[in-house]
Write a structure and sequence with these properties.
2 copies of one chain form a homodimer. With 216 residues, chain A is α/β, with parallel strands linked by helices. The first copy, chain A, has one domain (2-205): 3-Layer(aba) Sandwich (Rossmann fold). Helix content of chain A is 38%, strand content 21%. Chain A is built from 10 helices and 11 strands. An 8-stranded mixed sheet of chain A has the order 3-2-1-4-5-8-9-10, with helices on both faces. In chain A, strands 6-7 form a two-stranded antiparallel ribbon. In chain A, a hairpin with a 7-residue loop joins strand 6 (97-98) and strand 7. In chain A, 55% of the residues are buried. At the A-B interface, strand 7, helix 9, helix 10 and strand 11 of A face strand 7, helix 9, helix 10 and strand 11 of B.
Chain lengths: 216, 216
């Protein structure tokens, strides 16, 4: 499958590399066509890895992963272009974390409580099928759930059932077995809302190698 | 030990009844001295159960539990009286949930992101030793962790180490074995912040009988 990755940070590189390993063709997009990290990623990723602008990556992908930092997500997706996202699954991995007030970060007020970054993306790109997933864990764990022992959970939400089913298939190929569908995209408020406790736990444990599990 | 409970709802009744069962003396406080629920609770609680106003309960307790709904917490504690809270452990079980915009509730903007209800209470009552705990689960589970199978977690935070140690002792007497101390009272932002996902999960499972576990 052809997959576009928006963002060249650790999240984009982790997901992109895993998708390459699984046999997909991946184009990593960045603000400029010759982003150093994307070029390096391309050079080690083999024939199925390529890089270009945000718009190149979005045009290339049948499915798009938004792996930007939360504060740059909307601008990056606008640069990717609505016409390149229309009708496609857009997996939103980003979080609206505001680091401007120091550590630990808070959520941007306009993108929390009665809104969320996932919803905002869905509103701005109504033709995209936004699926919020993978945003509640470290990027290495995203693509290797066995890093943390036993069963633990991946939260997902979105308005389009077929899109969620497709993303479920992809994350299962990453090794995920417990996927909790929280409903429509408004549930992004809930999954983005656990980032503050995730950061506190990461600071406490001095490690990002943990995850949430819902015990019944 | 003498314990005051602020609030006569299900949370206050659950915690109050458990404390009575464990041999403590408990006074449940309400807005008026003859609150129907508190009188009923008194009548079934035996010799160690009593009831009165918020101020009566706070004056009585060596430790106070704030079991009010979030939107009434500050008013109830102001009615309880600063002088009745000074120097005492104040266990804050409440959450700043705003139901005015329908279900699921959101958090009040002024009490989220860079603030929290736990912090606001600590600011208004600087002489109290506020410990945020038990606010991330159903009230029956608070006092009976075995309702949910296996190990699962209770989050705690507060500025006073000795106060947290005392509250840890109390929740251990409720049956809790895994208590995660997240640090000072600013971590209330993090534990209150998981209420939105808690509510979504409760709606999904049509049951409040679940809890969070951090898996490493």
């Amino acid at each position: 499958m052809k997959i576009g990755i928006i963002g060249t940070g650790m999240v984009g590189a982790s997901i992109g590399s895993k998708l390459i390993e699984l046999g997909h063709e991946v184009k990593m997009g960045s603000r400029t066509a010759n982003n150093e990290k994307a070029v390096k990623w391309h050079s080690v990723g083999g024939a199925n890895a390529s890089q270009g602008t945000f718009a190149d990556a979005a045009a290339f992908g049948e499915i798009i992963f938004n792996c930007t930092k939360g504060d740059g997500a909307l601008d990056a997706l606008k640069a990717a272009g609505e016409k390149n996202l229309n009708g496609k699954i857009l997996v939103d991995v980003s979080n609206p974390l505001d680091f401007s007030k120091g550590m630990p970060p808070s959520l941007y007020p306009a993108l929390s409580n009665t809104n969320s970054l996932g919803e905002e993306i869905q509103k701005i790109f109504p033709g995209a099928k936004v699926v919020k997933a993978l945003n509640t864990m470290n990027c290495l764990l995203m693509v290797n759930p066995a890093m943390v022992s036993g069963s633990h959970d991946l939260f997902m939400c979105g308005n389009d059932e077929a899109a969620k089913a497709k993303v479920t298939e992809i994350v299962k190929s990453f090794g995920w077995t417990s996927i909790i569908d929280l409903g429509d995209i408004t549930a992004a408020r809930a999954t983005e809302g656990i980032l503050p406790i995730w950061v506190r736990l990461m600071m406490k444990y001095q490690s990002p190698n943990f995850n949430f599990k819902i015990v019944k």
